[in-house]
Amino acid sequence: MRASELLAGAAALLASGVSAEAYLGFNSGNTLPSREAKFKKDWVQEFTTAQNLKNSPGVFNAVRLYTNIQAYSQTSEPIEAFEAAIETNTKILLGVWASGTNTIEPEIKALQNGIAKYGKKLTDLIIGASIGSEDLYRVSVTGIQNKSGVGAGPAELVKFISDWKKAFQGTAIANVPIGHVDTWDAWTNGTNKPVIDAVDWVGVDEYPYYENGKGNNIENSGYLFDRAYDAIEGAVGGKPIWVTETGWPYVGQTWDQAEATIKNQQYYWQEVGCRKLFGKVPTFWYNLRDSNPDNEMKFAITDNLSTTPHFDLTCPKTFKTTPKASSSSASATSAATGTGVSSPSSMESGSSGSGSSGSGSSGSASSGTASSSEPATVTAPAESAVATGSATSVKGVSAAAVAGMTLLVGVFAML
Ligand SMILES: *[C@@H]1O[C@H](CO)[C@@H](O)[C@H](O)[C@H]1NC(C)=O
Ligand SMILES: *[C@@H]1O[C@H](CO)[C@@H](O)[C@H](O)[C@H]1NC(C)=O
Ligand SMILES: *[C@@H]1O[C@H](CO)[C@@H](O)[C@H](O)[C@H]1NC(C)=O
After folding, report:
1. What residue's CA is closest to ligand 2, atom 10?
2. pTM
3. In Å, how far are 172, 319, 337 from 277, measured between CA atoms?
């Protein structure tokens, strides 16, 4: 390989690594548990709590939204979370609802309306956009078996991604990285490869709690998570991975071996959040507050937006999930192949209220959105959470970036 090629490769690696700041945030649907619309003040409360959580390992100053449209708006009114984000300096991962519709025009319009209203104050906060959420899961064998609601296939998603790029070409957000969020087994399904090719980053919703039949007890949760993560890494050809939903419920039925307790919620925070994600991978925890009334599992880490969570958020210095245990654990091993269960949120969509087509979702987990669109699978908790933050988040330069820099330095030395 020639030095110039090496240099180009190193630069690409560096660029991709650096672009993946390790954002910290929560998910946030556009409705409350009562199914009423959330308004600016509701998001200001969420974002303020997220940034001020006691003993937080970093500042949760990012939010993942499920839609650009204010709940129940028929006219592509921009979601009021935008205004709250501006007021609290919260970074925004935009969401676009993409199932049960043949156009994302209302979503595009709502964002355009928001940009017309707030300009650079809004566009400076936008860190990414996800076209779709668990759409591929819902059309997969498991998603259909689980009656997860209307989804969308790879060709539709690729078209929507292209529609989005065209709409924002030459605007202030033209370079915002585009992703798609799905369950891990959607990403390892070869039929969905065109979606991988079309995105800048790959979003994954992963809930070991829902992985029945795989030894999903809490002590195994870190191994199940790693298996899924590694499987995606192997399938996406070096595209950055963003963990768009993960968490453990503190209320709900025992799901095979998985028990919903506060103690387990803390264990999962430590063994998956602290060990694997925070400061390393862009992460949107599920969740700060529950908002999907149809999901009997409750994932909130705090009550009534208190800044004192159910458990101490402090990260430990050592972990129980170790590489050695991983390979010897029979259950972890078998887990990799199973089906992925999606997340609770899947249902959440926040999609636009009625405006969107209403595809049905049956879903139980969903969060409440008014919209028709929530997906509903049981699987995903999907609700909404929010986060925000003010100041600095835990930003870390990713390992890939470090590797890229090292490589770059080496190349310069060769020249
Ligand atoms: C793989 O993906 C395709 C397209 O999304 C879907 O139709 C198919 O059911 C998936 N396969 C499995 C085993 O879920
Ligand atoms: C949260 O708020 C509800 C409604 O005001 C109240 O009934 C409940 O006791 C509160 N929970 C906690 C833990 O403060
Ligand atoms: C989805 O379906 C599979 C297979 O039918 C089942 O084992 C699993 O529990 C279901 N997941 C959810 C979340 O319902």
Report:
1. 304
2. 0.80
3. 30, 13, 22
